[in-house]
UniProtKB/TrEMBL annotation:
Keyword Nucleus: no
UniProt cross-references to Pfam families, sorted A to Z: CBM_56 (PF22184), CHB_HEX_C_1 (PF13290)
Span of domain CBM56: 29-123
Organism of derivation: Amycolatopsis pretoriensis
Protein name: Chitobiase/beta-hexosaminidase C-terminal domain-containing protein
Origin superkingdom: Bacteria
GO molecular-function terms, A-Z: carbohydrate binding
UniProtKB keywords: Signal
Lineage summary: Bacteria, Bacillati, Actinomycetota, Actinomycetes, Pseudonocardiales
Signal peptide: 1-35
Length: 774
């Protein structure tokens, strides 16, 4: 049985936890610990009803489980603890004075796992232990000085700390606010509270890099086995054979949608005749010219409802992209029938563009930017669509809300009849960074300039304005890389170029250098393990993130991506951080969990096309109300943040929370969670029924948004209702334009569109529209 449990631990930590609990329930256990000094443990009473169980193994553990009884009305609980700076913690709630907890731990040590003896703790029964301090950012390697915040979960506790390696005491320096760590050092801290036992000492070691810049990388790198590089000298038959092989592997919605296979098709400058690239799951197609016209495909780059199981609809055509090339379509029209996470960027379509499947079946929304379409762009069956900074010959069609900003050839602003929302310019935008080959055959990454009040493609007058960086400044991430090797590259001052693959992270990726570019192709997927946060970007100028998929791990992360530390207030108006074609997935492939997907604390950040998705389908056992848990897709705390293209779906509380002043959103598409068990389990803290999809904080006095839609499909219990889809403070500085709600197949209702305005969603999948609010 123990050998079986060890195998489960290696291949499925979640199943290992279940098996461990079954062993305990059966009166069996893993071997006892080798020695008492394998660990220390303590209990911190956080309040009259909550305690925190703490376990610090001498040897770092891959996992620690805690088992406990004694909570009134609750049987034995078996919980995977959360690791923070080497101490594993778990909070127990629902207690009252006099309750006696019986608890014990199961922990991994160098492969095998062990059980501790049982311990006992009486709530309110004498002296309690103060919760150990925690550090933010955590200890690690950073390229620049850090500002470190120390906190304790015990209310009213004071913190004393040292930076000289000594053990802190009650007479050490009092912590009164964030401290500067300008060079490498270890910070030790202890928390104290009168009447309670002092906390254990916590430590965080910070290594501050002194390198002048990234160690020189190759200008003609090996991009690994999942990147196909084509050149015009290759025969069309050879190119087509490779394209067809990849498509057959990536095509099927039932088997490829949640698979680990990733691929990129890169075309060097030149002309390619009779090339037809059908684009499947997790496939990026891109030209390697400096401008779109440098690569010409006389043929097709196509997405359609390819499979019999699709039943002629494109509702699940996710995770694929086309970028930076010209296409002369073989039949006169390019077809790009996609749903979410499928950007069409920097494309020169020398014909028409059909955004619907050949069957005219349903499609649920997509994104175009920096693109020219010589003929007509037709949406037909697309529910919503967003086109930014582009040029169209003309546009045809619209179901619920077609949104345009900075796009010539777009229809007039006529929402809701026809349902077109049009802004003449985009307030602030910046084209994506992209890979290209220069005249000497070396690879470089182009970094487009910031645009304000933009209209039309950035390359409309010849070349995209901006600068370029050599690949010698990029660390190429490919199979075999770990969080440690990636963080070492970041600390050394390197940019990152992620090649197609799935990367498991056992520590947070820390992006601390201003101007860092992180560019991915072929949907590189970052999976945080053991509950770590996947990536933290410091509050610095000009970080560019593009082309990444964050896939939540099976142990809950507090956030998958955070931009800027909490409380960030510096202006980055002249050189903001950009988050572009960055996608988030909770469940579907694995039973992922993350409280928040994206948190933006830095001012002036540009969020340009994200899809944050809590899965409503996928591999068996990876989705369900209590399985792939996630509160919120996007939290914005920074000032003057702009979002162009928000797709956020199925989170269990508010989909978007916007607390920063001066925010702007152009285009929002949302579906509320399908799997709400019942109304009683899904009421907002304010007491109203359900959670709004888009909530603007009560203290916000300036916010504006255009072209928003929220749908409900409460399939588990159609009696469920949400009081409104949009919740905003009532003042003249908070303005919404062209917004709607829909009940899909009349599974549940939304009572109002925004605050108390807009009627209840009717049957017949008919939208309720609000043109302006207030």
């Amino acid at each position: 049985m123990n050998r079986t449990l060890d195998k489960l631990r290696r291949h499925s930590p979640r199943l290992a936890l279940v098996a461990s609990a079954l062993l305990v329930a059966a009166g069996l256990s893993a071997p006892a610990a080798l020695a008492a000094d394998d660990y220390t443990q303590s209990v911190s009473q956080l309040s009259s009803t909550q305690v925190q169980l703490n376990f610090t193994p001498t040897t770092p553990a891959l996992y620690v489980d805690v088992h406990y009884t004694g909570v009134p009305g609750v049987g034995q609980q078996n919980v995977r603890m959360t690791n923070g700076s080497g101490t594993w913690r778990s909070t127990v709630s629902g207690l009252s004075s006099g309750n006696v907890l019986d608890y014990w731990f199961t922990y991994e040590k160098s492969g095998p796992q062990y059980d501790t003896p049982h311990f006992s703790y009486t709530v309110g029964g004498g002296t309690t232990t103060v919760a150990a301090p925690t550090f933010s950012p955590p200890g690690g390697t950073y390229s620049a000085a850090q500002t470190v915040t120390i906190s304790s979960a015990t209310s009213g506790a004071t913190i004393r700390y040292t930076v000289d390696g000594s053990t802190p005491t009650a007479s050490s320096t009092l912590y009164s606010g964030p401290i500067s760590v300008p060079n490498s050092r270890t910070v030790n801290a202890i928390a104290l509270k009168s009447g309670s036992t002092n906390s254990p000492v916590s430590s965080a070691t910070y290594t501050i890099g002194t390198q002048a810049g990234c160690p020189t990388q190759s200008d003609t790198p090996n991009f690994g086995p999942n990147v196909r590089i084509f050149d015009p000298g290759m025969s069309a038959a050879t190119i087509q054979a490779q394209l067809d092989t990849d498509f057959n592997n990536q095509k099927d919605t039932l088997t490829a949608q949640m698979a680990d296979r990733r691929v990129a098709h890169l075309f060097k400058p030149g002309t390619y005749n009779n090339v037809h690239d059908n684009v499947g799951f997790y496939t990026s197609v891109a030209g390697l010219g400096q401008n779109p016209g440098d690569v010409l495909i006389n043929g097709d780059v196509t997405v359609d409802a390819f499979n019999a199981s699709d039943n002629g609809v494109a509702l699940q055509n996710f995770w694929r992209s086309a970028e930076n090339m010209a296409v002369n379509p073989s039949g006169g029209n390019e077809r790009w029938a996609v749903a979410q996470a499928a950007p069409f960027r920097r494309m020169d379509v020398r014909g028409g563009l059909q955004l619907y499947p050949a069957s005219y079946g349903f499609a649920s929304g997509g994104y175009i930017a920096d693109t020219k379409v010589a003929g007509q762009a037709a949406s037909v069956s697309q529910q919503q669509w967003y086109t930014r900074d582009s040029q169209l010959g003309s546009w045809n069609g619209g179901v619920w809300n077609m949104v345009f900003s900075g796009t010539s050839g777009a229809p007039a602003n006529t929402f809701p009849n026809p349902p077109e929302t049009t802004l003449s310019t985009t307030p602030v935008s910046r084209d994506v960074p992209y890979l290209y080959v220069d005249g000497t055959g070396k690879y470089r990454v182009f970094l487009p300039s910031l645009r304000t009040n933009a209209s039309g493609p950035s390359w409309a007058n010849g070349s995209t304005p901006g600068t370029s960086a050599p690949m010698s400044q990029f660390y190429v991430v490919k199979s075999g890389d770990t969080a440690s090797s990636i963080n070492n590259a970041l600390a050394a001052g390197c940019n990152l170029f992620f090649t197609p693959g799935v990367y498991h992270l056992n520590q947070t990726l820390n992006v601390t250098k201003a101007g860092t570019t992180i560019l991915g192709i072929g949907y590189p997927t970052l999976v945080p393990d053991n509950g770590v946060n996947a990536m933290q970007v410091s509050d610095v100028d000009g970080v560019r993130l593009k082309g990444l998929l964050f896939d939540a791990g099976t142990t809950n992360s507090q956030a998958l991506l955070t931009v800027g530390q909490s409380g960030s207030s510096a202006s980055h108006a002249s050189n903001p951080t950009t988050v572009q074609d960055v996608f988030f997935r909770i469940g579907g492939a694995i039973a992922g969990k993350a409280t928040n997907s994206l948190i933006v604390n830095s001012a002036n950040t540009i969020i340009d096309h994200i899809w944050a998705w809590r899965a409503d389908h996928g591999n068996a056992g990876t989705y369900g109300w209590n399985t792939n848990t996630a509160d919120t897709g996007l939290v914005v705390n920074g000032a003057n943040v702009t979002a162009t293209g928000l797709f956020v779906e199925h989170y269990q509380k508010y989909q978007v929370i916007w607390n920063g002043q001066g925010g702007k959103t152009i285009f929002f598409q949302n579906e509320m969670p399908y799997d709400v068990p019942n109304q009683a389990s899904w009421n907002a803290p304010s007491g109203v029924a359900g959670y709004a999809a888009y909530k603007v904080g009560a203290n916000v006095t300036s916010h504006e948004a255009w072209g928003l839609g929220s749908y409900c499909f409460f399939d588990t219990d159609p009696a469920v209702s949400s009081y409104h889809a949009f919740e905003v403070p009532n003042n003249s500085g908070v303005r919404f334009h062209s917004l709607l709600t829909v009940s899909l197949n009349y599974r549940g209702t939304i009572t109002h569109v925004i605050n108390d305005t807009g009627g209840v969603t009717p049957s017949g999948t008919v939208p309720v529209n609000v043109v302006n609010y207030p």
